[in-house]
Amino acid sequence: MQRISFQVPLDDLSALMEVSQKLDISVGQVLRSAVKHELRRRHTTAKRTERADEQLLARLRALLAAPLAETTNWAEFNRALEAYGYEARASGGGLALYHRDAGAKICKFSELGFSYAGLVRLYGAAFPNHPQQKLAERYLGQSMEVIEPFGPTGTRPRPRA
């Protein structure tokens, strides 16, 4: 092991000392453990969900909101995207927006405010060739289901005796 020294604010040192006392270990052990944890976190290969840049999302929402609002089916939806150089592709249980020429994924449609479930209900069908056809069937079944929370019309609960 190598020795290092650094300065920390008094509040942080107090917190470190409190943690070390509670765990009955040295301040050095607390710091070594924290450094090891941070290095492991930074170098992990676990899949991370990466969100698109919020400014980019805002510009895309503004650009695509009106054209997509005028569409009534998936073919019109795709043509509206193509007019701006984009395309939709199935991605997991939803859709993602891709740059048509570069083929680069830009973001998920849900990040733009267009959920796959909402689009399926709007167009009455699954996205063409989407691998999760069962999702669309479920979304369409939910949208057509009639729920009567109060029972048949004209009936009242019996008064308690």
Describe the structure in your own words:
- It is a single chain.
- The protein is mainly alpha-helical and about 160 residues long.
- It has 2 domains: about 35 residues; about 90 residues, no CATH class.
- Helices cover about 45% and strands about 10% of the residues.
- It is built from 6 helices and 3 strands.
- A 3-stranded antiparallel beta sheet has the order 1-2-3.
- A hairpin with a 5-residue loop joins β2 and β3.
- It is elongated, with a radius of gyration of 27 Å.
- About 10% of the residues have low confidence.
What is this structure, in a nutshell?
The protein is mainly alpha-helical. The chain is built from six helices and three strands, in the order H-H-H-H-E-E-E-H-H.
Protein structure class: mainly alpha
Number of helical segments with 4 or more residues: 6
Morphology call: elongated
Which stretches of 5+ consecutive residues score pLDDT under 50?
A: 143-156
Q: What separation lies between the terminal Cα atoms?
A: 82 Å
Give the neighbour order of strands across the main sheet.
Answer: 1-2-3
Tally of discrete structural domains: 2
Largest sheet composition:
3 strands, antiparallel
Instruction: State which percent range the strand residues make up.
Output: 5-15%
The percentage helix is 40-55%
Summarize the helices and strands and which ones pair or pack:
Layout: H1 10-23, H2 27-42, H3 54-69, H4 74-82, E1 86-91, E2 94-99, E3 105-108, H5 116-123, H6 133-144
Antiparallel strand pairs: 1-2, 2-3
Helix pairs in contact: 1-2, 5-6
